[in-house]
Amino acid sequence: MKEIDELEPQQYKRLYWEEDVPVKDVRKNVLRKFLYIGSLLGILFIVAGLLIKFPDQIELPFIIKSDKSEEIYRFSNPVYVIERYVKPGDVIKKGQALLRITSPEIVLLINNYVEAKQNLENFKNQKTFSIKKQNEILLLKIKNNRNNILETEKEYTLLENKWKSNKQRLEYENEVALKKYAANKNFFDEGHLSKFDLFEVEIRKVITSDSLESATQDFEKSKLSLKYLQSQYLSEINMLNYELQKSDIDLKYDSIAILNKFELVKNKISNTYGDFEIVNGEIIIKANSNGVISYIFEGEKEVGAGAILMKLIYNNSAMYAWIQSPASLIGRIAKDEKVVLKVASFPFYEWGTIKGHVFNQSLTPDEKGCFSVKIAIDDAGKLKTLIQAGMNGDATIILEEKTFYDYFFRKIKKTFYKATME
Questions:
Q1: DSSP-based three-state secondary structure for 375
Q2: Bridge partners of 73?
Q3: Which of 186, 213, 230, 257 has the largest count of CB atoms under 10 Å?
Q4: Which residue in 280, 267, 313 sits closest to 294, CA to CA?
Q5: Lateral strand order in the sheet of 308-314
Q6: Taking every pair of C-alpha atoms in the chain, what is the biggest distance, in angstroms?
Q7: Distance (Å, rounded) from C-alpha 232 to C-alpha 148?
Q8: Percent of the chain beyond pLDDT 90?
Q9: With contact defined as beta carbons under 8 Å apart, do 353 and 381 qualify?
Q10: Which residues make Cβ contacts (< 8 Å) with residue 279, sequence separation at least 6?
Q11: Across-strand partners of 341?
Q12: How far is CA 48 from CA 32, 54, 57, in A?
């Protein structure tokens, strides 16, 4: 039995040759597809070049700074640390006690402070009270004089009313005496009246005339006396008002002088040692604001002149980035341009970047020919609580955004200009 007896003919016979099958021509289809794909890619590239913009930017190194620098406590004279209430790294609040110190200079300042404060309190408690009582007496005298003026005005009114009635009577009597004298004079001239009778009538005329004149003079004298008395009262009121004003001025001057002396001593202590409190002849230094203790003296009690006693970093101090731009680039940097900050201490691919903008820039260069640029921080991202003054990195300033063709034609212009210049 042969090996092929159980096989089908197509299993052991070659029914057709592969080379006999005709090959289909696919070159045109492939070329057409390449043309379509290339055209599509070209169109996409053209559209992308027109629509997609790339930032035109410059990179410069920066350093983080603070609006309020770290506060350093150091003094021109040696001080002695009696007690420490905080340690480095402690978070402090405004008014919190930090250190208790003393020195011969501090003792002298405290004595002057206590003396000035006591003088101020004595002035407020005693001098002010005495001036107040004195002013009350002056005001009472002014009131009495004003009442006296009112009394004199009343007397003057009564005097005028009385004089009006008396004047009418005296003028009438004088007029009657004159008429009677004239009539008797005619009788005497006609021989019907004796000279003795005429003499009596003439005496009566003179008496009534003298009475009218005397009463008029007495009225004028009384009137002048009342006017003079009224003017005296007014003068005394003016003098008393002047004394009141002088008393107030003296009080203000004395109070200002004593208060200024107290403030001078107080400011001398606060300007030297900061916010303070005096306890048992020693100074307790207090925090001026919320912050963190960055350094504190850990040596023996004595802190030498000029040595650093303590350093504080305040929480309310805003951070900003500071850049030194060369003169060749400062013309391209404008206010409010976007800036991306990459802090060297924190890799940007893990921690992200800090976003900001150009806040301002100097108008003139420094001694090195560089311009200062201040970058305001808008969004610190993950680094909000981590950035500190002194950190550095690279700042990317985004000048403007341009398309591919803008860059392409700019390069052509540059090449053309360079070629023509050469």
A1: strand
A2: 310
A3: 230
A4: 313
A5: 71-74, 308-314, 291-296, 91-92
A6: 225
A7: 10
A8: 1
A9: yes
A10: 100
A11: 354, 395
A12: 24, 11, 20
Q: Cα-flanking dihedrals φ and ψ of residue 186, to 5°?
A: -65, -40
φ/ψ of 70, rounded to 5, equals -60, 130
What is the pTM (predicted TM-score) of this model? 0.46
Looking up tokens 């040692």, which residue turns up? 273
- Cβ within 8 Å of residue 406, ≥6 positions away: none
What's the CA gap between 286 and 263, in Å, rounded?
19
Report the distance separating Cα 321 and Cα 343, nearest Å: 10
Residue whose pair of structure tokens reads 């009343």 in the numeric block = 154
Torsion angle of C-alpha atoms 208, 210, 216, 217, degrees rounded to 10: -160
69 burial level (CB within 10 Å; 0-12, 13-18, 19+) = exposed
Cβ within 8 Å of residue 59, ≥6 positions away: 394, 395, 396, 397
Backbone angles phi and psi of 200, in degrees to 5: -65, -40
Alpha carbons 66 and 311: distance in angstroms, whole number = 15
Task: Show the CA angle centred on residue 263, arms to residues 259 and 268, nearest 5°.
Answer: 155
Residue 98: CB atoms within 10 A of its CB come to 22
Q: If DSSP codes are grouped into helix, strand and coil, which group holds residue 176?
A: helix
Residues ≥6 apart with Cβ < 8 Å to 84: 98, 99, 296
- β-pairing, 291-296 with 91-92? antiparallel
Tokens standing for residue 41: 């890619």
For 37, the 3-state DSSP assignment is helix
pLDDT value of residue 132: 79
What is d(CA 390, CA 322) in angstroms, rounded to the nearest whole number? 10
> Can you read off the two tokens belonging to residue 97?
């006690």
Looking up tokens 């005005």 gives 153
Successive 10-residue mean pLDDT values, the chain, 422 residues: 56 51 58 74 66 68 78 85 86 87 88 86 76 82 85 82 78 76 73 70 76 79 82 85 79 77 85 84 85 82 85 73 87 85 88 89 86 89 80 84 60 66 64
